[in-house]
Write a structure and sequence with these properties.
Blueprint: H1 24-33, E1 39-41, H2 42-45, E2 50-51, E3 73-75, H3 76-90, E4 94-100, H4 105-114, E5 135-142, H5 171-186, E6 189-192, E7 195-201, H6 214-220
Parallel strand pairs: 2-4
Antiparallel strand pairs: 1-3, 4-5, 5-7, 6-7
Bound molecules: zinc ion (ZN).
Zinc ion binds next to strand 5.
Length: 221
């Protein structure tokens, strides 16, 4: 991972933001107690899912490649819900494109240090729901062409138009946004109040903030 050099500053087991993210060894013991805590590789679990992991490219708001691998992981119940959503969208000729899923905690620290406004980036004092493996950034695509449905803004736009409550004049865009939010909420997610593409899994509080790199998950899985 690009960010390894920053290394969290550990004081009495806490980093400089007062958090103690869970490492791989600790994560493994939580999975033994509660198998729902397993991080599932979404691409393997949901065939046909399209990944466009922006933080594995320079095409994101930091302009830097944050992840070394283009991977999408989420906790087991999140993955299961997403599988049902994909099946439901498929009946309408639609699919899902994932922009980001589980995010190692050190990436959240990096985002905060680049962009301090916590309206759009998570606070490292609390961690992101992405760090818990319980948030998904996604949109809907047409299965026939792979084309994204038109939405009010691009992914990761910091404009007010990205708020799911912002008025939309174009009826097609309005319908697309409603379709996405409705299907996600039907299966246990809640849309973020400032990002139409970000969905939190209800029950995220039961899952720890993790700081495990994709490389580690790939090797040890
Ligand atoms: Zn997000």
């Amino acid at each position: 991972m690009v960010l390894l050099c920053m290394g969290p500053l550990l004081v009495n087991g806490q980093n400089k933001y007062g958090l103690t993210p869970t490492n791989y060894i600790q994560y493994q013991s939580t999975v033994k107690v509660n198998p729902n805590k397993e991080l599932i590789d979404l691409e393997k679990f949901i065939p046909g899912l399209v990944l466009d992991i922006r933080y594995a490219t320079t095409n994101n708001f930091t302009g830097e490649k944050i992840y070394n691998l283009s991977k999408a992981y989420a906790r087991k119940p999140v993955a299961e819900a997403l599988k049902k959503i994909q099946a439901e969208l498929k009946k309408q000729g639609l699919g899902i494109k994932i922009f980001d899923a589980y995010r190692p905690y050190k990436a959240t620290v990096k985002f905060y240090e680049v962009y301090h406004d916590t309206t759009y980036v998570a606070s490292p004092y609390r961690g992101s729901r992405h760090n818990r493996g319980c948030a998904l950034d996604l949109t809907a695509i047409k299965l026939s062409t792979g084309e994204e449905l038109q939405m009010p803004t691009e992914f990761d736009s910091f404009k007010k138009e990205a708020w799911p409550t912002s008025p939309v004049s174009d009826p097609v865009i309005k319908k697309n946004r409603a379709l996405l939010i409705n299907v996600m909420e039907k299966y246990g997610f809640k849309v973020n109040s400032s990002e139409w593409w970000h969905f939190d899994f209800i029950g995220w509080k039961q899952y720890e903030v993790l700081d495990i790199d994709f490389e580690e998950l790939e090797v040890r899985h």
